[in-house]
Each structure stands twice: as C-alpha cells, then as structure tokens.
Design brief:
The chain is of the alpha+beta class and about 230 residues long. It is about 40% helix and about 10% strand. The protein has a six-stranded antiparallel sheet, with helices on both faces.
C-alpha cells in the first residue's frame, strides 16, 4: 500500500480512538480501535492506550494471522476479537471494543437489550445479545463475540464490555454511541418497571434500512432472518 494511504488510515484509527475517548466510552489504558487496510491486514491501537497522547506512529500494523508488520508498539491481547471479526466479515472496515459504563453494567448482569427503540434495528440490527462468559485475552473471545453478534453490528461481552463493527470508522463510532445510549435507556427503564419492546410487525421497514445501509454481516448469513 502507498505510504500516504497508510498514513491516512493511521490517522483514521487515531481519530476514531480519540472520539470514543472524548465521548466517555473508554478510559485510558482500556478498549481498542482497529481499521482494515485490505483483505489481510489491519491497523490497531497499541496496548494500554493513552488516548490524548495517541499519534499515528504508535498505531500497530499487523496481518489477520496476528503477525506484527514492522516495528513499534504491540497491540492489546484483545485484538484477537478484532481479527476474528475481520476474518468472518469481509465488509467490516472498523472494529471497536469498549467498556462504556452502562453497557458494562449490563455485561455484568449478562443481559442483552431487547428491541426498545427503532434506531436499534436501523443501526445495530436488532436485539443486542450478550456472549457467554469467556476468558479475557484468549482465542475464545473471538468465536464467542461472533456468536453473539450474529447478523448485528454490536454485542455485549459478558463481564467485560462491548464489541462493535461497521463499514467505516464513522459508522462504528456512531454505533458505539447508540449502543451506550440504548444501555442507559434500558437500565433506566428497568428501574421503573418492565420495558416494553416494539412489536415485530412494526419493524419490517427498519430492517430493510439496516440491510440496505448499515449491515455488514457475511454473505453466508444473507438468507438468515434477523433475530432468529
């Protein structure tokens, strides 16, 4: 890849990482952002990221087998989840892992989010599922995350946080913000009573919007009904 293009992508990773930090979705030293370069390579934030000090030269270049390309910082061990998503979903151009407060509260309860708002289906794909518990920083995190993602763009990681993917950095950041908003709304509604979900018959047009604009699930899942 041309040096200028690679530098632009490094800056894109930095921008995405600093956006989720500024929005309170991560703290220093936690979470990670990655961007696909091509079919076999990605760029990802380094381990123990200090977001205000992050710069393009600190971004890690690696292939989908987990090999580092070039010298410099090392990635978080949680990059295994990113690699699993990229290998399974060719349309994905950006992956975000965060520990935002409300989504993490739900993760500790190992509780997903039913479809409580229309934007949940339009942008994220529908009901948000929580993974089964898996040991952090291991190969088990990837398959567990993919199972919970199903056709969606986001999932909750049991006792951990969230995984979000999208066709661009802008999409993934937007989805991360929406996911935390939904978690906050759902948590608040649970304090008052039993949240009411949107009837399935009201969701057809929103599902079409998701599939037409934001979905990045693999071709092999095309015929599978959302939220089955």
């Amino acid at each position: 890849m041309e040096t200028d293009k690679l530098e632009q992508l490094r800056k894109m990773v930095v921008r995405g990482a600093q956006e989720i930090y500024s929005k309170g979705l991560v703290e220093d030293g936690e979470g990670n952002v990655s961007v696909r370069i091509n079919k076999n390579e990605i760029l990802v934030t380094p381990t123990s990221t200090k977001y205000n000090l992050l710069s393009p030269e600190l971004i890690v270049h690696m292939d989908l087998d987990g090999n580092l390309l070039g010298s410099g910082k090392i990635p978080s061990t949680e990059v295994k989840m990113h690699l699993a998503v990229y290998m399974d979903r060719p349309k994905v151009k950006c992956v975000i892992h965060n520990h935002s407060p409300y989504i993490t509260m739900l993760s500790v309860l190992r509780r997903g989010i039913p479809i409580i708002m229309e934007q949940q289906l339009i942008f994220l794909g529908g009901e948000i599922r929580c993974t089964e518990i898996a040991e952090a920083h291991t190969e088990d995190m990837g398959p567990s995350a993919l199972k919970a993602l199903d056709r969606n763009n986001a999932a909750i990681l049991a006792n951990h946080g969230a995984i979000i993917c999208g066709k661009s950095v802008d999409h993934a950041v937007r989805f991360a913000v929406i996911l935390e908003k939904l978690a906050k709304v759902y948590w608040g509604a649970l304090q008052i009573g039993d949240p009411l979900t949107i009837p399935e018959e009201n969701l057809e047009e929103h599902e079409k919007m998701f599939n037409g604009l934001f979905a990045c699930y693999p071709r092999k899942m095309r015929s599978k009904k959302s939220n089955s």
